[in-house]
TrEMBL record:
PANTHER family in alphabetical order: S-ADENOSYL-L-METHIONINE-DEPENDENT METHYLTRANSFERASE YKTD-RELATED, S-ADENOSYL-L-METHIONINE-DEPENDENT METHYLTRANSFERASES SUPERFAMILY PROTEIN
Name of this protein: S-adenosyl-L-methionine-dependent methyltransferase
Matches recorded under SUPFAM superfamilies: S-adenosyl-L-methionine-dependent methyltransferases (SSF53335)
GO biological process, one term: methylation
Family per record: Belongs to the UPF0677 family.
Keyword annotations of the record: Methyltransferase, S-adenosyl-L-methionine, Transferase
Species of the source: Catellatospora coxensis
Molecular-function GO term, any one: methyltransferase activity
């Protein structure tokens, strides 16, 4: 399929395919009826390739757990009065269509122009109806994305929920820190940040060697991790709660693996972050 997407952008098709598979389960953790469409014919191929060569057919529950965890956190924020949401590296995400949003909610979707154009075309063909105001912005997240965001109506003075899902490990530590600083600069006190990450210790361990080699060979290497996300965010004024997959708040009956603590060598040390900006270091 000639969709004009670069290798990293094509990981969005893979994610959509995994969400489509979850939607098809009778015990699904979320509904995402548009995921199969947005995966295109290539998404399942990418998914099967990685599972066959790296995970040996094992269905990793992390994507399903992560999606549900962030769904719940975003709706909780909306119920608390947040009306401005920014999806950083939105990919084929359909939360703007499938979640129950309060009136006046605005959701900004940031990602590569070609990916958002493909997404818009597929959704138009399906006559999909958004559940809130969605403003897609084709930007370079390593360049100037803050100017287009402001021009699209982003309100600096009000609390925002930022979702950075499936992105940090594709960035170098410097790129990650720069992005965090830009997000913090744009955030009013009481803004929220949701993200996922992998520990550097796990990333450097032998258990992830095959995975990293496969990702690099496919053109989208995992570049960095973090063993102290609380410290990283605290320095910028964010109070972070880190949830391990398999912990009570990030399980949903799916996680059978032992909880992995930061700094301990393991196969996949992955965590979910929920943070609130108190402004103390801003």
């Amino acid at each position: 399929m000639d969709d004009g997407l670069d290798p990293l952008a094509r990981t969005a098709l893979w994610t959509a395919s995994m969400r489509a598979r979850e939607h098809a389960r009778s015990d699904r953790l979320f509904d995402e009826p548009l995921a199969n469409l947005l995966a295109t014919e290539d998404g399942p191929k990418i998914m099967r390739g990685f599972e066959g060569e790296v995970q040996r057919g094992v269905e990793d529950p992390a994507l399903a757990v992560r999606t549900r965890f962030f769904d719940d956190a975003m709706i909780d924020a909306a119920r608390s009065g947040v009306r401005q949401f920014v999806l950083v590296a939105a990919g084929m995400d359909t939360r703007g269509y499938r979640l129950a949003w309060p009136e006046s909610t605005v959701l900004f979707e940031l990602d590569r122009p070609a990916l958002l154009e493909l997404k818009a075309s597929l959704l138009a063909d399906a006559a999909a109806t958004p559940a809130c105001t969605i403003r897609p912005l084709g930007v370079d997240l390593l360049g100037d994305w803050t100017t287009p965001l402001a021009a699209a109506g982003f309100r600096h003075s009000e609390p925002t929920l930022w979702l950075v899902e499936g992105l940090f490990y594709f960035l170098s530590a410097h790129e990650r820190d720069t992005l965090l600083k830009e997000i913090t600069t744009l955030s009013a006190t009481a803004s929220r940040l949701l993200a996922d990450y992998v520990t550097q210790t796990s990333l450097d361990g032998t258990g992830m060697q095959v995975w990293r080699e496969k990702m690099a060979a496919s053109g989208h290497p995992w570049k960095s991790g973090c063993d102290d996300p609380e410290g990283l965010l605290d320095a910028q004024g964010w109070r972070a709660r880190v949830s391990a997959y398999g912990s009570p708040e990030a399980d949903y009956g799916r996680w059978a693996h032992a909880v992995i603590e930061p700094g301990v060598t393991a196969t996949r040390g992955r965590y979910l972050i929920s943070a609130v900006l108190d402004g103390s270091a801003v």
